[in-house]
# Entry
Amino acid sequence: MEGSRPMVLSSLSRSPHGSRRPLLHAERRIAERYAELVRLAYLVLPSSLGRHRRVLAAHSLVQRSLPEATPSVPAPRSSGADGADPDRPLRVAVVRGALAQCRRPRLWPERARPPRLLVPRLPVVLGMRLAPRSGGAEEMALGQALSELSAPARAAFVLLRVEGLTADHTHGVLEAAGVERARVAVREAARLDTSLGAAAAAVLTSDEFDACTLRARPTDLVRRRRRVRLAAVAVLAGALAAGGLAAVTHSAPKTPGPFAQRPRSADLVRVDPGEWADTSRVDFTAWPARGDRVRDRALLDRALAVWAAPPPGTRVVRAPGTPADPPPRAPQLLYAGDVSGRAVVVFHDGRRLVRYGDTGTGELLVLARTDDADVTTAAALALAERGGAVRYLLAPWVAESSVRDLTRPDSPARSLPVARDGVTAPVPRWTGGGCGRRPALQLRSSPAIAEHHAFLLADLGGLTPAHLTYTPLPGHGTPPARQPREATGPAALVAWRQAGCDLDSAGGTGVRAVSTWDFAEQDLPDGGGHAVWTCERADTWRGPGNITVLLRRPGGKAQVVTRVRATAACSRFGQHVVARTRWQSPRGHWYVLAAGSRAVTSLSLSGDVTAARSGHTLAVGAPEDARTRVRARLTSGEKLPEVGSRSSGGTRP
# Structure
């Protein structure tokens, strides 16, 4: 299925003028542009349909656009940029069809299929579920941003960013597709385009949104068997009624499928120990089954039974956005053994980690999302917690393991003993609050991995520790396109010494990675010293991320400037940022400080105090309670409002 291109069949019907030439020309253009047109339809269709339905609907829309894209009368020539566009009729037909799928009748149930999808149209897929390849956090964030747009604005965004049309050309396509407020849709798309930046185009063309490069999976096998039986019973009942036979009073007894009740230990998936070195997918799917009880069928069956139907008294802990439904098929076994005198079993079902544990006073079930993990985010999982310490199970590709204290960047990392089955010695857990001891795992992957390197993982209370990264100040070794790097270098460790004190606010379960980005530096007035503006971003497995902007000064505690939840700021889709805070100098004077990232050319302050400065930073004397706001101008000429609206209170040095 991967890389396949469905065939577009020629129509044998003739055009109203008796010539097949326009029809054949349109068919040839569809064949040449098939993948791009399907991507356009897929992105415009609402995400509420689900990935499988969107894939089939996108292919159906493109294949059914042939008659609409073949006008019986040649279109008039236009003097605009779209007049010489041979693909305009195709785009109009695809966008019109996709927008029609987005419209629901007034009283139509929200969760029900749109009425146009109730009647299957070619192509039809039975017994399989199709979906594009899953992307990472950036693709998830962009998908969420697109889903929040109106359907016409979503179409305008794709035409602008992916198809590369001008705003006027996009407006013309939308109007031709029947959009009444096309200008409004283009403006709405332009606003999102400004906030996301040019990087969105590259992500939109990734496999996450490619409805022609697909992964195939079976449907719910148990439900399918039941539906087949019900359909057979219905057909039999109809035949008996038509023949005047007696009504069927009972259906044939149902034989439960292999997982109708719950998977059994004999059905568990077990990966060969050396598979991780021979696969391009280095994540939890490459972990072998480890532990001294991987053959204990009683323990494994008990863990599976608790997962399928937790008995009364079972404590169930779920990371945000993690479903607690039973396994749809036999999961993969990662670990089964005794840790600190307690039985522990860990499963992986392709999208979740599930840890079963015997606490001595009951049973504990912990579930967390781990879809699209990689070499770093699938390098360790918390196996057992006891006495304020955690034992981790490390990935088989981890060649070196140590522990370092984030609050002491000059202190070397201490070696972390690891048993033969991958279980570490106890690692002290963060106590929370203040800037006390902050242990972090420092791991190094095997040379057999192409991405062989050292990296840091920090415990934030979840089943998997968060991956820590660092982006230095502009001009401090950063490439033109800002790229995060591993937080193991001297500058990164110094930055994390202060940023790590605020990790509790980004903590909690469900955090995939935390990055620190030093986006500006500033000499403070009245001899206040040199300060660095830092944006700390915590990305979750669900996609949304939370940020904390900090003002860091050497030798002092970082000052919290603002916190913003569920934002694209400080990510690949929010590469420009400007922030503001109040600050009291060593001489007792109050100032408003502001700073912007690399593309900021000037700053303007408004409110109780007004000022304007060229460059990245601003420091203006102002009363302690002055109400102000800051805006930045970018190299592109666009204006950028400050991130968040709540500034922290001033602190004395």
The longest strand covers residues 511-524.
